[in-house]
Design goal:
The protein has 407 residues and is of the alpha/beta class. It contains 13 helices and 15 strands. 40% of the residues lie in helices and 14% in strands. The longest helix has 25 residues. The structure holds pyridoxal-5'-phosphate.
């Protein structure tokens, strides 16, 4: 049996399955939780061992190991992505969103615009707005079933609006694109022309499938003055609740500015659990990751076959990267409320609603598939049964009862 087939006991204090969260967000607790982006798998053995070693030590005196952590990160990037990073350009932050929040504050003023590409990870809106900056939407477009950047719209907005940064998501959550070198180069050229910084969130960089290559924005030409990268081992190794993030800033003046700000707030004192787990992950976790990627790819292929054969009214945007699948339900012609009822109350699934990522995407849902395949198969069978049956009689949204089967 494959290690990723094991179904582990679910802890109710995990956000994904916490009954209070489920009730608050989905109005139900008897649902299979496939929403928040973390994994149901046990972490790699070397990471477990490094944490166990710490626990048995019983002494937690001050200990700083960022030098070793940064070396592990740069060695990993060289080996995995053929990306040469200068270990002197890293700054530690407690998490990716913290890093983005700091960069936005340091690289722009209140009221300035920050460009995002919805549908996109919903916390981007909050991190921008809570810093008093304006979210500028550059919606992705769909061509032949594939999401693409709308470069004309970006250029128009960079020309006419007071934009200081582009917040890039690569690989892109929730639609699963891994941006090509050509796409990224166009973005870099625009950033150079209009003097804005690309803040590149690369937290999903290692979760890419066999026919795709991940390109960091830091691998492109002429980026020195206009990029900042944010990374973390959290998604790659399933360490969401213990890992820190890091910034990579090639421009030395910007690097010093950001490092000073972070240092003055003592935000770079990460925990030793995170440091040791990160070193173990990046130095000894590669085999586990390769096994994981093979497993996830098998899951993705199974999903593609199932949707094609059994759910022709559902559109799957098969991801090039990330462990989420983006599903479109508009062909069902259901009202938004009826769709939600069908998925939550009949299929008994807690999926992330598409309008979290962009308000018009009410007919989309994101499913996190980093779970044992048997669980994902069960989820899709539940979905099929619900769709075959149609919206049931317990749905009583007064104005949309035309969606209801026979009542
Ligand atoms: C694109 C992206 N950035 C950031 C995060 C959150 O990162 P952190 O918990 O380190 O702030 C997530 C989590 O799902 C994400 O998908």
């Amino acid at each position: 049996m494959n290690q990723f087939d094991t179904i582990h006991n679910v802890e109710h204090n995990f956000a994904k399955s916490n009954p209070n969260y489920l009730k608050g967000m989905f109005g139900a607790t008897d649902v299979m939780p496939l929403w928040i982006a973390d994994m149901d798998f046990e972490i790699a053995k070397p990471i477990q061992e490094s944490l166990q070693k710490l626990v048995t030590r019983n002494i937690y005196a001050y200990e700083f190991s960022t030098g070793e952590v940064f070396k592990a990160i740069s060695d990993w990037n060289l080996k995995r992505h053929k990306l040469q990073l200068n270990p002197k350009s890293f700054v530690q932050v407690s998490g990716v969103l913290t890093g983005i929040g700091i960069l936005i504050r340091e690289l722009s003023e209140k009221g300035d615009g920050i460009l995002v590409q919805p549908p996109v990870y919903h916390q981007f809106f909050k991190v921008i707005e809570s810093a008093g900056r304006k979210v500028v939407h550059n919606k992705l477009k769909v061509s032949d079933g594939r999401y693409l950047m709308d470069f004309e719209d970006i250029e128009r907005k960079l020309k006419t609006l007071n934009i200081k940064a582009i917040l890039l998501c690569n690989p892109h959550n929730p639609i699963g694109r891994v941006w090509t070198k050509e796409e990224l180069q166009k973005l870099v050229d625009l950033a150079n022309t209009y003097d804005v910084t690309i803040i590149s969130d690369e937290i999903h960089s290692d979760i890419v499938y066999s026919r795709t290559k991940f390109n960091s924005i830091a691998s492109l030409d002429n980026i020195e003055n206009h990029i900042a990268v944010i990374g973390s081992p959290a998604k790659t190794f399933g360490m969401q609740s213990i890992s820190n993030g890091y910034l990579y800033i090639p421009n030395q003046n910007t690097y010093k500015q950001i490092k000073n700000t972070i240092g003055s707030l003592y935000l770079d004192h990460g925990s030793i659990h995170s440091a040791n787990a990160t070193i173990a992950a990046y130095t000894k976790g590669e085999e586990w990751l390769d096994d994981l990627l093979r497993y996830l790819e098998k899951t993705m292929n199974w999903i593609q076959d199932f949707v094609t054969n059994e759910l022709p009214e559902v559109t799957l945007y098969k991801p090039e990267g990330t462990y989420q699948v983006w599903l479109e339900f508009s062909k069902l012609n259901l009202s938004d409320a009826a769709l939600k009822h069908l998925v939550v109350n009949q299929a008994k699934l807690a999926l992330t609603p598409g309008d979290w990522f962009e308000e018009s995407h009410t007919q989309f849902m994101r499913m996190n598939v980093a779970s044992p395949l048997s669980k994902i198969q069960q989820a899709f069978h539940q979905l099929k049964n619900a769709l075959d049956k149609g919206v049931d009689c317990s749905f009583n949204e007064a104005e949309s009862n035309t969606d209801c089967c026979s009542c």
